[in-house]
Amino acid sequence: MNKVEIAQAYEKGGAACLSVLTDEKYFKGSFENLEAIRNAGVKIYYARIKGADAIILIAAVLPDLDIRYMVKICKMLGLAALVEVRQSFFIIIIINFLLLLNC
């Protein structure tokens, strides 16, 4: 699991805040980790601020957890989330996810 996925799992579990280690020498952290975690959801907020009504999420390049996280943010912001699916494998994942959301 990468750093962003770990952070999203904490958020999904109800965490209100998160500590990201940036010390490289002792903790193998980095400011790049902090930036990646922080930017995961920022683009969606920025799109909404700029007037977007919807965003496209491409299933082939996003992990399942990222899609769930981003759709959750979209629902909170009143944005439509279009999930682009080109392979049947991803259709099953998205259907299961929508069932979990009661969509």
From TrEMBL:
Keyword Amino-acid biosynthesis included in the entry's annotation: yes
Catalytic activities: 1-(2-carboxyphenylamino)-1-deoxy-D-ribulose 5-phosphate + H(+) = (1S,2R)-1-C-(indol-3-yl)glycerol 3-phosphate + CO2 + H2O
Pathway connected to this protein: Amino-acid biosynthesis; L-tryptophan biosynthesis; L-tryptophan from chorismate: step 4/5
InterPro entries: Aldolase_TIM, Indole-3-glycerol_P_synth, Indole-3-glycerol_P_synth_dom, RibuloseP-bd_barrel
Keyword Metal-binding among record annotations: no
Transmembrane residue ranges: 77-101
UniProt-listed Pfam families: IGPS (PF00218)
Keywords: Amino-acid biosynthesis, Aromatic amino acid biosynthesis, Decarboxylase, Lyase, Membrane, Transmembrane, Transmembrane helix, Tryptophan biosynthesis
Residue ranges annotated for the Indole-3-glycerol phosphate synthase domain, each copy included: 2-87
EC number: 4.1.1.48
A GO term for molecular function: indole-3-glycerol-phosphate synthase activity
Gene3D superfamilies xref list: Aldolase class I
Superkingdom of the source species: Eukaryota
Alphabetical GO biological process terms: L-tryptophan biosynthetic process
Protein name stated in the entry: indole-3-glycerol-phosphate synthase
Source organism of the structure: Hibiscus syriacus
